[in-house]
Sequence to fold (666 residues):
Amino acid sequence: MPKTGFFVLHSNVMPKLTAGRYDLVTDQTGLPFEVAAQHTHVTVASPRYVMPTDQILSTFPPANADGAFGDRLPQIVLKRRTLPWERNPAEQVQTSETPWLALVVVAEGEAQLSTATAVADCVTAGTTLLDPGDKDVEQGLYLAVTETVVKKIFPCQEDLPLLVHVREVDINDTELANGDDDGWLAVVLANRLPVFDTANNKPVRYMAALVNVEGQLSALPKPEPPNDFFNFELAQDWTVLANVNLSVGPDPRVMGGFSVGNVQLPAPGGVFHAPSAAARSAAKAAGSAGVRGGVVNASTLDGATSMHEAPVGQQWKSATDQVAAVALDPDAKRLVRDTMASGFRLPIELFAVEKVLRFPVLAHWSFTTSEGATFETLMEDLDVGLLGTRPAPPADAPAAGPGPEVIETGHIGLDLRSRRGDAARAWYRGPFVPCPTTRDLPNQAQPLLAHSADQLRRVVPDGREDLSLAAAFEIGRLLALSQLSVVSALLRFRSEQFGAGRIRELLSHIVGFELPSIAEQRVDLGRLVAVSVVSGLAKNPGQTIGPRRPVADPGRELVLSPDLELDQVIADGLGLNLGAVRKLSDQIGVVAALSRSTVPVAKPVQDVTALRVALNQELQSVIAVAAPPQILTTGRRASRDAAPARDALDELIDRAVDPGEDEESE
Fold:
């Protein structure tokens, strides 16, 4: 598993077998008799029409989200690493490096998402799948798109392997691993950026659909040369169908001439003729006059051009609120998906002139790109005027009051309230300056290291305070402390270097030899004790440790009087009646006799005051050694007056860029 902060990308992880039904035949040979072959039926299961929710770890952009998503490709993260390759999209049994899944992003009005349909009807008519009986559900959803939309926004076959990969991560280091158990994730990317409609300055609602491309690789577009620029435009605009009332019956749709707003819908499969010159003139005049009553011939729905008709009813505005409302329903799982699909249920199949393709949808979610800020647009809208510069007022605007106090160095005068409550004026300037600046330091000396913002407050020649550096110090400190890595590094420094320095100071007052200096590496206190302290004690063990004792001490020799019996001496020492033990052992044995013998028991100590006093004295002596106040009051040795050893902070300051390059003169 990768270490924390890193991950490994794999092009694919191929399964041993593709999904389907297999017949395992067991044949035994080398026996003196024949054995009939055994047939075992095995089914390798995999999703085909619906993706189980436990296999979806995360999606981006989040479902029902509203924000700026135009700078990142949408994606869906799957739990099982082999899932995108468990089926062969070319309808073969062998495994293939071309995945059978594709993430398609369609804008509102470009495609139709069906309702629950039998899985046999979720593919384009005439498409035969390998083993049609292999189905995980009886009903599913499909995405209906015209050939024009497929050619414009669908990925080509050569792009499919590039849009799917496997990511190996540390399960404790990423939020995408929620619910994962091994750190291997399959990621499916889309090939379309959900950008903001900058031309019309309006949000765009998108739907991301994870589709099955089995048996339809030939319908995918062919590779095209890359473009140097990109502008948002609907691949095909069917939003006018949002006003179609299907309850009027089938006659208008079959016979044609069904008008919706300024669009005249065709009959399915009909042949259209160009409008007359008079009709074109009338439509042009109506358009130039700003009238929406002109009639647009239905040939514009054949995919050749876009209608550029604004979405009717502005469905994207209420979609987020609708999803939030239905999420409170007990049947929210189904209702939320249906509500997010609103705006993508247009009856495109009923009116499309060209061929409509169907792709099974395993998962889908919708979101809205309501912001179009990119680095390019931010730079184009950047106001490069001097700090405090106001835009020029209109000619008929009333006279404005005095402007802000701004000088040529970029400083602006601001009202200041001191800590004592006094009102004053001070100068402030941000990090960007309108002219080159120099540092005013004697002999190019290294600036003193500041420990607080007040140390950087300066008084300029006009008598005011310049708070620019003080504000920069405080802002930089807060920004640094907002990063978890900086806080954790400070905590590690305190627990390792600061703690090691304190322990070393304590040891220097306990041991009678010079401790080694702390170099530019992390201090291991255990190694310091093992190498330095133990080695110092071993140089003169007779004085520091004492004489060496044998492993087994025999003790002093006992000298007994010749007239004493050894058994009697041992019995007296243990408080036993030797005569009674011998008499009873003749009847039941020595062991049983000893177990039945009574021995005197010493009386328990009633007064433990002396023991408690001795324990408290020993505890106070230990605390006195470890307490920092007593260490600070003791005198330092001559060796402690030497220059302190350089630490990591000193090295960090030395490696910093020379501050004299981009600073100003105070």
